Fold this sequence. Notes:
14 strands, TIM Barrel, globular, four-stranded mixed beta sheet, alpha/beta
Amino acid sequence: MSVQFIGMIGHRLASETLAPAGPVFDKAFIVESAQAHEQAGFDRVLVGYWSDQPDGFLVTALAGQATSNIKFLLAHRPGFVAPTLAARKLATLDHLLDGRLAVHVISGGSDAEQRKDGDSLDHDQRYARTDEFLDVVRRVWTETQPFDHQGTFYQAQNAFSAIKPVQQPHLPVYFGGSSPAALQVAGKHADVFALWGESLEQTRETIEKVRAEAARHGREVQFSVSFRPIIAATEDAAWAKADQILSTARQRLEQAGPVIANKPQSVGAQRLLETVAKGDRVDERLWTGIAGLVGGGHNSTALVGTPEQVADAFLAYYDLGVTTFLIRGFDPIADARDYGRELLPLTRARIAARQG
């Protein structure tokens, strides 16, 4: 199977090494970032979800109108929009984008983050709600007659949508989460299961668990892994670049104050800390410096080396069954362009040769 590359666009310039710059909804930056990823040859870009940041639907709409080919992956948290309405909003956006939309369903790994939007359910309840949410959304997307739904979290009478997704039978559903509750939902609903950048051993273990859950439903799932590639002309230069990124990120974090939890709540973050515990360098190329600094709080592990070395590292994950790589740098637009010049073409060529 061919490889897919997903980038990430934000609503303004910011990263672990760059303090936020520009207006909080920076239209020029959104457009430039989306176009840079399209020109670099990315297949898709992720638009994230935060409880205190601009609405991802509108970020995606703006980026979509500024591009023509690149696809989008919109993060969405169930619980704040009724599934009947969410299904119509997503279908409408898919029409606006001419069939270029997928949805990344995030149940929420932090109680504190969920409380900001008024959600009081606990971890396992959130995943149970996601299961029901996706049941209803899928019915709205696919059923040709009105239907009733009486569930634990949602109720609807004569639910129906005149607008269906451009993509049939429905939008691609990406899903993430490392807990047992999350894996059960993934096996039932995910078209693509998304992992953070863990070691090869941890990745193999998760893939096996998700495949087993999917088999219970007679389904097959594809897999995506997230990394923050750090590339340079030589291996020494790449590791020096990683050291500088860590130094700058540490300074910025110290200036910003204690903004991360010492004990991350999500199982995914705890698993990243297990990777951190293996050392700064795991499986030769996997660097855990930023992951350790931010407490495993998000996709923060990097693959470090020359473009050829990082492409070979991708190949090792591909051999485990990973067909999608979600990659973003610490200088968002400049790094996306760098990846497009060498890393993406090299990886695609090596995987094509492997298939051949």
